[in-house]
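Quick log. Single chain, no ligands specified.
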Amino acid sequence: MTSPVGGVSLPSFPTVGGVAGLGAAAGVADVAGTAAAAPAAGSGEGFAAALTGALDQLGSLQSAKDALAVQGTTGDLRDVHDYMIAAQEASVATEVVVTLKNKAVEAFTEIMRMPI
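-> predicted structure:
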């Protein structure tokens, strides 16, 4: 799902508790009440697929922000609010993905410390 902002289509980014991107990784309902796409248990595509999807969406958000920045620089941007919203969405999504990565590394490190 995309929403047009300033002539640029921004991807819809599921949210949980107001934090963008966590809904897709956690497989829980987004703000609108529809369930985020989550692979079925046992399908072999759990966390890796969710993380790949989150990274793809992050790339889309960054691209949309960059396109709006170019429009602002060339004077084609009609409303600066569109750029500010896209920039904030990209910033929050980046923070969420980095936090998820850090927690995954922390969990892996903790598992490696467990005695056999």
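DSSP finds three helices and four strands in the chain.
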